[in-house]
UniProtKB/TrEMBL annotation:
Pfam families: STAS (PF01740). It comes from Streptomyces yunnanensis. It comes from the Bacteria. Belongs to the anti-sigma-factor antagonist family. The gene is bldG. This is Anti-sigma factor antagonist.
Amino acid sequence: MDLSLSTRTVGDRTVVEVGGEIDVYTAPKLREQLVELVNDGSYHLVVDMERVDFLDSTGLGVLVGGLKRVRAHEGSLRLVCNQERILKIFRITGLTKVFPIHTSVDEAVQATD
């Protein structure tokens, strides 16, 4: 399966909607998108992972890299995920302590954490 990416602006946040699989083959596409957004001045990102079917360690690395990029500009990166199999990966790796994870885009956009 391939990776689908689209972006939209909601308030002062840029929402990156991700679908499909984030793995060693598709993660570079997501990395390019995040780098491009930060380079263009978008420092408050919401990555909507509601349609993600699979996430591996390469994908986790891309998300952590994106977080470091936005934090360098006093920004934020929030995740939207409500699928137990994906949430389990974040819990096992301890990344629930690193990323604010929300159940909806609206919740992520309105959050102040």
